[in-house]
Amino acid sequence: MRQAVYLDYNATAPVRPQAADAVARALATVGNPSSVHGFGRAARRLMEDARERVAALVGARPDEVIFTSGGTEANALALGGTRAARVLVSAVEHDSVLRNAPKAEVLPVDRDGVVDLAALADRLARGAGGTILLSLMLANNETGVVQPVAEAAALARRHGALVHCDAVQAAGKIPVDMRALGVDLMTLSAHKLGGPQGCGALVLRDGIELAPLLKGGGQERGRRAGTENVPGLAGFGAAAEAAAADLAKGAAGCVAALRDRLEVGVRSIAPHAVVHGAGAPRLPNTSCIGLRGVAAETQMMSLDLTGVAVSSGAACSSGKVRASHVLAAMGLAPEEAGSAIRVSLGWRSTAKDVDGFLAAWGSLARRQGSAAA
Ligand code: PLP
Fold first, then answer.
1. Is 189 in the pocket of ligand 1 (CB under 6 A)?
2. Residue 371 Cα, ligand 1 centroid: separation in angstroms?
3. Tell me, what's the pLDDT at 318?
4. What would the pLDDT profile of 134-153 be if each residue is shown by its tens digit?
5. What is the DSSP letter of 104?
6. Structural contact between residues 303 and 360, judged by C-beta atoms closer than 8 angstroms
7. Is 256 exposed, middle or buried, given 0-12, 13-18 or 19+ CB atoms closer than 10 A?
8. Ligand 1: which atom is nearest the Cα of residue 74?
């Protein structure tokens, strides 16, 4: 079924036309980027152009970019490859961080989902018999809440700790500068910013040791074996460049205006609706909306029937309904967390999309007796 209104950019953004063109052009060429002949060199050029564009998006150098199969692999590489003696994570990290650091010490967050810096300082002060790694996301996938990464990184550095930042949801939506943030490793994913699915990167500051997860080839300077996905990476580079150009033109402000229109509309339909995380700095594109008494799945499926696509909880994986660990960490009771949907906008969103959502959500809220009289 054709979705008339797509508001699930945090799951996957629509592919930007520049990215689709770059993928098509790369598919029309032949050559393995590790081959020394002319065909191979042409494929390598495509890939190195992409590396430059991805690096530029986050203020890094091209030789710091290790291409991966996506954000999940980059997070696994960061957490597994640094071989830290202790790992600290926030309670609202993506599962691809939490599951790859099962012994991590978990830092609490406040009611808005912002990490507790005093708890971080306390943990850092306990020392370690080796390297400490802090893994803190830049923006949360469910709420859009932006973490104080620069402050946390400054604290961590004072204790000689390494800092990894999962910037999958932030890159391309807000300006990101790896050096200004003071982080050592950063995770990116192409499909969250208008590139193809199945491509990502771990950006690794010079001089940081990293053991590969995938062995058996010298690609990516020995950090990630396997022939690179050249067409996908060409698309990633083009998407990164287009996202950077949009940001320079003020795209974040335009998306924020649409998000604000949506939240004002939601509150006028149902004054008791809650926007989770609204007390903290947030991405311009994400609203996590709670409508008490109406299950998120009911909302999502009812919206889907009218062609409006949103998510419930962390619906990233497998379509299974699972309680959100993010909302639970923010102190929400299960029934509150279970009535929250995520609406996420992006480069192709329009006021018509927002109004389409509001019309569909408004009639659902009225049917459920949850709208203003
Ligand atoms: N990190 C965050 C914050 C995410 O939101 C996601 C995906 O939703 C990932 C990592 C995983 O990225 P990928 O889908 O490229 O594996």
1. yes
2. 34
3. 45
4. 999 999 999 999 999 999 99
5. P
6. yes
7. middle
8. 16
What string of DSSP letters covers 169-206?
A: TTBTTB---HHHHT-SEEEEEGGGTTS-TT-EEEEE-T
**316 flagged as catalytic:** yes
Q: Is the pLDDT of residue 283 over 70?
A: yes
Complete DSSP assignment for 12-51: -PPPPHHHHHHHHHHHTS---TT--SHHHHHHHHHHHHHH
Express each pLDDT in 264-281 by its tens digit.
Answer: 999 999 999 999 999 999
pLDDT given for residue 128 in this prediction: 66
- 36 CA → ligand 1 middle, Å: 34
CA 165 to chain CA centroid, Å, is 10
List, in sequence order, every beta strand (DSSP E) within the chain: 5-6, 65-68, 86-90, 105-107, 132-135, 162-166, 185-189, 200-204, 274-275, 286-290, 308-309, 311-312, 340-344
pLDDT digit string (tens) for 86-138?
Answer: 999 999 999 999 999 999 999 999 999 999 999 999 999 997 678 999 999 99
Cβ of 324 less than 6 Å from ligand 1: no
What would you report as the CA-atom Rg of the chain, rounded to the nearest whole angstrom?
21
Measured in angstroms, how far is the CA atom of residue 94 from the centroid of ligand 1? 7
Q: Is the CB of 97 under 6 A from ligand 1?
A: no
For the record, the structure tokens of 10 come out as 């945090």
* Any atom of ligand 1 within 6 Å of the Cβ of 141: yes
Nearest to 294 by CA among 370, 363, 371, 372: 370
User: φ, ψ for residue 146 (rounded to 5)?
Assistant: -95, 130
**Cβ atoms within 10 Å, residue 214:** 15
- How far apart are the CA of 173 and the centre of ligand 1, in A? 14
Cβ burial of 351 (10 Å; 0-12, 13-18, 19+) is: exposed
Beta bridge partners of 275: 289
Q: pLDDT band for 25, please (50, 70, 90 cuts).
A: very high
